[in-house]
Amino acid sequence: MHTAIQVVIDGIILGGFYALMAQGLAMVFGIMRVINLAHGEFLVIGAYLAWMAHQYFGIDVIVALPILIVIGFAVGWVVSRLLVIPVLDRPELMPLLVTFGLAAVIQGVLTWLFTTTPKMTIASYSNSVLEFMGYSVSVARVVMLVAAIVLLGLFALFLNHTKAGKAMRAAAENREAARIVGIDITRIHCAAFGVGAAAAFAAGGLFSVTQGFYPFSGPLFTLKAFVIVILGGRGRISGTLAAAMFVGLIESALSGYVPNVGTGLGTAAAFILVVVVLAVRPRGLFQLKGAKA
């Protein structure tokens, strides 16, 4: 019983991080119909920026989050405008190839700048542990969960209660109708890609305090985010959160009950589940009809 409860605690924390990580990819896919294969690399860039902010300036990751978000948005906007928009109306393989190439370039640049030696942001609370009724959890992981949930809440408010957010939702529902009513689709696509990158940068900064990372960590993050997007349905925050919690609990359970290889089994189990979901319910396991968020 003790192990089961600890598994649930760890799964919820992991799921919160996965939700923030995947929401950026879900948004880009839902609005632009593009799968950004460099999404995980954006996350790794955010992790390195958080590490640098602490290493060279003594800035805690929580304090650095607004900076990471602004930088992520700017990077996403530029990448979208220069690389993605020009190939958006071409065959579907073109955006995939462009973002795949971008991922390879980012990996090479990060390797050149930082080598392949793993890095980890050491905050003042990195070695602190919360103990409650025999259960323990790292303070850094609690900070990651709380920050991720807050950012997801702000993200939902942005989509549902701002003019730009409503324009993005309109473009996701019907691109041509949105264009007819005067919405600048190119600008909305750039903004959506920017917000998606900002979410990835923020997730990377939070992750950097909990585990080590290196330039080639990105592909696994992209794959896990893709799994969550498929399970959660197209772009719904509620669906993404539910799917992320589901994947987090699966991975945590297998890690807890199958030592040493459980994490790998969790990833494999998630992909097997995706195959089943695509065959039985193509719109996603947690798609909520009519939900705004």
UniProtKB/TrEMBL annotation:
Lineage of producing organism: Bacteria, Pseudomonadati, Pseudomonadota, Betaproteobacteria, Burkholderiales
Localization, UniProt: Cell membrane
Main location: membrane
UniProt source species: Candidimonas humi
Membrane-crossing segments per the record: 12-31, 63-84, 96-115, 135-159, 188-207, 239-258, 264-280
Keyword Transmembrane among record annotations: yes
Domain of life according to the entry: Bacteria
Membrane association type: Multi-pass membrane protein
Keyword Calcium included in the entry's annotation: no
Protein name: Branched-chain amino acid ABC transporter permease
Keywords: Amino-acid transport, Cell membrane, Membrane, Transmembrane, Transmembrane helix, Transport
Family named by the database record: Belongs to the binding-protein-dependent transport system permease family. LivHM subfamily.
